Amino acid sequence: xxxxxxxxxxxxxxxxxxxxxxxxxxxxxxxxxxxxxxxxxxxxxxxxxxxxxxxxxxxxxxxxxxxxxxxxxxxxxxxxxxxxxxxxxxxxxxxxxx
Length: 98
What we know:
Elements (H helix, E strand, L loop, with lengths): L13 H14 L6 H11 L3 H20 L4 H6 L3 H14 L4
Helix pairs in contact: 1-2, 3-5
């Protein structure tokens, strides 16, 4: 069993953030399995610029959802990062990062 790793007393956990990241990738293929999300993330790393842009879009979208006060449960399940991730992946594939 994987244990949660506490960063500080504010309740931010590395494990939960990582699962949120993988769950957001899994939502692209309508899956709730974070392991599938990990595999999808690994497959985007074939094109590094696409992986970087996708992760940036995903992270920005999740933090924007938190700032605007959307449901933290939905953020953790990856519902709000869906469009930001797809946009980041498309931009990473279309444009070259300098």
